[in-house]
Fold these 3 entries.
Entry 1:
Amino acid sequence: MGHKTHPIGFRLGVTKDWQSRWYAPTGKEYRQFVLEDLQIRNSILGQYPDASISKIEIERNSSDLIATIYTARPGIVIGRGGARVEELRKMLEELTSKKARLNVQEIRQPELDAYLVARGVADQLERRIAFRRAIRQAVGRTMQSGAQGVRVKVSGRLGGADIARTENAREGRVPLHTLKADIDFGIAEAATDFGRIGVKVWIYYGDVVNEAEIAEAELEDMLPIEVTLSPEDPTAEVVEVESTAEVVEVEPTAEVVEAEPTAEVVEAEPMVAPKAKTKRATAKVKKPKTATRAKAVKKTVKKTKVISKPKEDDGAST
């Protein structure tokens, strides 16, 4: 969706603000104000085509109209002694029938303004400079000025070709789907002998950080730490300690290195003692077995002796 919608319109109310700020109670006044804003912008851009005007913001209240002009060449808009500003102010009062005030804001870095970059590429195409060279130069200057990403798109009969095509150049990242990304977008047209060539420029400055979140983070860093002297006693007083005292803590690390528990685990004597006892027990048990076997052998010998005596008597008698 971010690639199809206007990047600035997609972020209105989130990171971008409207260029026309006023309230119309009725639909008739709303139509009148929109038409007047269009006429004001066209007249200013028509009178100062070479002033490098990026945008014009218009504010209205019940009696006044305030127009703020953002330009890279404020001297052209102001003129000598503010003469051109006075002429422009009178013209705005005639268009709106209200008291008009003009503010001129200087753009310090025109290389970081999307419309001015697109206008510069279009001017080079009108002077018949190669479009690839114009694109590369624009991308390089923008990135050197501090942008985090830039994309340039040129569409039309490039180089006088019979068939229109599109050329793109990109460097860095341009996250169009991220709402908090601060992206500027500008469109310009180059009037060449072969027709009009459209130029689109996207410039990514970085993510917009909410000021409230920054303030909360700073307050959390500044809050003191509470330490109780005796946790068992509920009436103990609370002492505030500076945040720098947290870094130097030696006791928790000393508890980790303890040699006594490891000495209790490695004990060889209890393991050797039961083995010796079992060997002696088996030796004692074997002795009675050998004694019974010897008695049995003696009994058998006695029996054989008793049996052999009668045989000798029979032989003597014969």
Entry 2:
Amino acid sequence: MEDQPADSGDLTTGSEDDEAQAQPTGKAGRASASGPESVPETDAAPADSGDAEPAEEPVLVPHRPAGKALKIVAAVAALLFVAAGAFAGATAQQYLSDRALVHTKLDVARTATSAITTLWTYTPDDMESLPDRAQKYLGGDFAAQYRQYIDAIVAPNKQAQVSNSTQVLGAAIESIGPDRATALVYTNSVATSPVTKNIPSLRYLSYRLTLERRDSKWLITEMTPVTSLDLTPRL
């Protein structure tokens, strides 16, 4: 049997054709044939701002005038505020007035205490100048009356070497006004003299003083004895 030459147009052998026909044509095959599958990018590009949803526009509510109830509440609140302010002002004014009254009473009491102590405290050496020392506490006719009284007793008291000391035990305001006041002053008076062998003369005296305000100063214009208790020992 003679050998027949192979067909010049057939470059493949029969076995290669058989292998090509035997390969599967499923999904795997199609995938390999189509090339590698593209992998989606993980970082997506930001969406265009024009595609974003527009922000919600504010809803305009029509203005409504305040109701009657709200107006009443506002009026009541305003009245309460005014009333509270008036009450606070009245309270503060009363407080200041009370403080001023207390200050005035203290001023009168101090003046009365200093005046009585000065008027009835003396020694034989300074008795003649007593009216001048007491002048700053006295006013009106009483200043002249006191000077006349002291001038009348200077000579006999100097002769007897009388010394007198007066201590104020207490003072009370009986009445007070803008320019006039009355006060009660309680005193303990002790007098000594060589004539009586320096045995002290003890007297408890109280006076009612009338004071008037003159140029911001309180001056005694009247002095009336109220009580007198003599405790001098009798030999």
Entry 3:
Amino acid sequence: MYFPHAQQALKKRSFLHILGVDLGGGKGKKTAVATLRIGPSDGGATVTDIAPRTGALPLYDTTLLGLLGGFGDGTLICVDAPLTLPPCLRCQVPVCPGQEHCVDAAVLEMRRIADVAGSTGHRDLRRGKPSITPYTQRTTEVHLFYDRGLAPREGLGQGTGPLAARAAHLTRALADRFRLNDNLIEVSPKATLTALGFLRPYKKHLHERQTRAAILEALAPNLRFGPGVWREACVQNDHLFDAVICAFTGYLWARDGWMERDSASPMLRGDGWIWVPPAAAGDAPGNRGGNPTESNGVRFASAKN
């Protein structure tokens, strides 16, 4: 099975453990963590643990931080939640000059991406929608939406505020050992699966469990489940499933040395980045023979360019 490699790699990243975190609210019960152990000589990744197990307490902050901090060096954490704030919320200018006159590097890049999309007649812009909202969006979300056709949750979109606040707290609490885009990355399981060609809904759908099972089966050559970790638990629970996909995204990121797109300015790195499999012209797990197909109940399509 093929997974797209970046055309250029800064370096091959090496980790022993990769932790995928499907982050929920601080007072809720929806946070899940999956642990991958990386095999020697790119022998793939093995799920060695999932949490919480049936009957275990929810992963509130103290428990979650204890779990994440209990791993030694050589650990990568991949979080499905905004790890940085939108540019308007980071801005230090006392009086906003308005979006049209803003000179913040992130806002300028967002406007550039939206202007290019507008010149090509993007459907949403024809409807009169605002092209960007830099108080809820970051450059990475604008890029993924207009340039890749992917729609991850916005940094401070509807219902994301409490989640973003918890993610900011966890980022600071882990800052003594984990640094953004070094051994701590932001991911989106939905965007990862879409980029890999898995298009059928795997949550809140009549056949969601069959779809999750089919996806895990398709990933099996690169993603295995170790002793005592039942794949069926991830089929039954979408939060555990998302945690596994978060960790698998980190595995691909480390293995293939993904980079930000070539036009990304170093000034934008403080704006945050959602890491998604790069666009590829070649085959992908969901693309067989160059045409969309059906396999194990999951619709496949080629990755976008």
